[in-house]
Amino acid sequence: MEGELYVRLGYTMDALYRSITRHLAYSLGVVPTQASKRDIYLALSYSVRDRLLEKMLKTNQRYEDSGAKRLYYLSMEFLIGRSLANNLRAMKIYDQVAEALQLLGTDVETICDQERDAALGNGGLGRLAACFLDSMASLDMPGFGYGLHYDYGLFEQDISNGYQREKPDSWISEAPALQVERADAACIVPMYGRIEETKDKWGRHNPLWLGWNLVTGVPYDIPIAGYGGLTVNRLRLFAARPSTEFDIKIFNEGDYLRAVEQKIESEKISKILYPKDSYEAGRELRLIQEYFLVACSLNDIVRTYEKDYSDFNKFPEKVAIQLNDTHPALAVAELMRILVDQKWVPWERAWDITNRTIAYTNHTLLPEALEKWPESLLARLLPRHLQFIYDINQQFLDRVVTLWPGDVDRMRNMSIMEEGPPRQVRMANLAIVGAHSVNGVSALHTDLIKKSLAPNFFEMWPERFNNKTNGITPRRWLCVANPNLHDLIEDAIGPGFVTDLERLRELEPFAEDPAFCEKFMQVKHGNKERLKDVIFNTTVVEVDPASLFDVQVKRIHEYKRQLMNVLGIIWEYLALTEDGVEPVSPKTFIFAGKAAPGYWAAKQLIKLIHNVGNTIEDDPRARDFLKVAFAPNFRVTLAEQIIPAADISQQISTAGFEASGTGNMKFALNGALTIGTMDGANIEISQKVGRENIYICGLTAYEIEKMKRAGSYKPKAMYDKHPMIKRVVDSLASDRFCPRESGLFAWLKDYLLADNEMFFHLADLESYVKTRELSTQEYVDKTLWAKKAILNVARVGHFSSDRTIRQYAEEIWDLVAIPPTEAEKSGKLKYTPSDPSSIATARAW
């Protein structure tokens, strides 16, 4: 039929080989026989992207045909890591590509290793967002991510003499292999300016926002393939560029240098993830980034909606917006501004639409992570938004007064505005007031939100608060990270479990099968052999794969208590060298993680880990029993190498401080046993895998809170009472671990013995050490250990991000799956241009 075009790309080995060689020749200008590994990586990436875009076009058409409601996930972080191998497995073409690359004289693992991590996130928050995108696509749900197109992701970490050194992490050089620029969908973002109070033609109050600076947001799309490769959603990242209109005006004024300065100022908005905010300019840039994300995202969301609808009556029925923590909380004010100022929706109606559309996920109880912005900064940067925040707050407080007349303390606590000096806007309060749903990310965390963080809000809106325990995608954290374990499980229980992870329960009987247990431990040993090489190549520390691999890898932070782990290592070291108590098994303690550049205490912990490791290595009495290795530059790819090799997973945050954790889930899925406190999702993991298959230690959140209220935590008394605790702490005050840097760690003694030591290290230390000893004793019994490890794998299916997304979709978003049509499954794409004259363009594509 005229005006129709059928496009189909091949997925056989032969078709993929031809596609790779075509891109070598016509995209890169390289003769295949002279292609470098990097050339082949790029050509393969372009070939895969072609196929992803083919599927993405089909997916978009399916969503449009169905009139589906769409979910937009707003997040400052998307820690997607490497994409190539993940896409090959999702599209089920890994083996075909492997054969094609053999014809080019190389192998698929070598080529996939050429890819740099897209480190567009800091840790759990960004990795969770990436898992959610994978699950939405794998569940055929119309869910899309919105973030920032940072030129530089989280810094690269170098270690020099035990000290962290930061280097820029530029992933942008290879970004074109992953993404598609959408310059046609660029938007203009206003900032700064002033408010002029006027009246409209009906005499109503009509504030005008004038004199703004303009920045252009240019979107770049990264395809997100669901498992099976039939549904491909997208992650849309916005880069900041100078506004053409604004630059032309400057050029017309003849000020070339000022125009260049404006270009630089505009582009720095998306230059780097999390600029240092300890100074005023850094804080301003951080707020600009958050607003830029919100403004670009909502402009795009509204533009997409208006393609099909002429008014906003159906907006909450067709659009759901999820705020990933408080960073995008300005979406509440921005959506109100768009509806009221640009679309002429009455204020009360606009508020109803906003409230029914937006939902908010809280990720932390830490006061320093609950964002507050100075009123003066908002007044200068976003004067119209501040007016909306004032109005929202006044309407909200009027309701509070009605419910609790005369309760001034309650009003002060619940107000979006925090009285100063300086007066500040509480972003968590804005998000809670502006959203129809507020969720925590583990059962304990949600309970603490209700009881500690926002009890007044919970009393006002109990129906608004709910729990959505985090999850992880088994596609990334089993299929890609641990393919040998995946294959072993598939041989045992059959295929299909990676999209229905609860099916891992079928593995339970195999925990009693000696042959399966032996194969399981062989897979683990192979992963440890691989990690041994990674550690040696990056640290020059030689580790023994036969030793117990005890692992703590995560962001370096006081509440995550890497320090308590080190205290435990020192305890064992002193017991070995001074008391003659040998461990029943050799142990390798593996650390990895980055400290925020301005976080002095966290950087000192990295230095302490290295010095303790060096001291042990230099001591002939200890080096055959204990090893300490710190793997630098922790990122998704390194996590994929470490997690499958771990025997022990350390999840020892102070109870009540970790919202959920997802590392704990990744380790359990890969057959590591957890040593953990009753914090975050550790509680739910212990319930699922069984208390006999996890090592729980330390105080509970409620015991710690009780001690805080009573002021009964006296670490000095514990130090005086317990000789071994005293020896461990005193070793830090001496120069034992810093012989050439006298007094380097002396501050830690005062830190640990202070009555206000808020992370309760010494309170949990004895329980923690005893739990470590028990785990080591049980590790020696290989039959028992294999059984416990297999049961961890078998019972951790609840923690799939597929389950989490289904709960969000059913209980918050009202989102349904739109599965592929039979025509899609057949592989034929029907492309019908709206203008028949564009058929040539379509053929060219």
UniProtKB/TrEMBL annotation:
Keywords, alphabetical: Allosteric enzyme, Carbohydrate metabolism, Cytoplasm, Glycosyltransferase, Pyridoxal phosphate, Transferase
Any single GO BP term: glycogen catabolic process
Subcellular location: Cytoplasm
Recorded catalytic activity of this chain's protein: [(1->4)-alpha-D-glucosyl](n) + phosphate = [(1->4)-alpha-D-glucosyl](n-1) + alpha-D-glucose 1-phosphate
Assigned EC number: 2.4.1.1
Comp. bias regions, Polar residues: 834-845
Co-factor requirement: pyridoxal 5'-phosphate
Record's GO cellular component terms: cytoplasm
Gene3D superfamilies: Glycogen Phosphorylase B (3.40.50.2000)
InterPro entries noted in UniProt: Glycg_phsphrylas (IPR011833), Glyco_trans_35 (IPR000811), Pyridoxal_P_attach_site (IPR035090)
Region (Disordered): 826-845
Main location: cytoplasm
GO molecular function, one term: glycogen phosphorylase activity
Modified residues (N6-(pyridoxal phosphate)lysine): 666
First-level EC class: transferase
PANTHER family in UniProt: GLYCOGEN PHOSPHORYLASE (PTHR11468), GLYCOGEN PHOSPHORYLASE, LIVER FORM (PTHR11468:SF3)
Family: Belongs to the glycogen phosphorylase family.
Protein function: Phosphorylase is an important allosteric enzyme in carbohydrate metabolism. Enzymes from different sources differ in their regulatory mechanisms and in their natural substrates. However, all known phosphorylases share catalytic and structural properties.
Protein name stated in the entry: Alpha-1,4 glucan phosphorylase
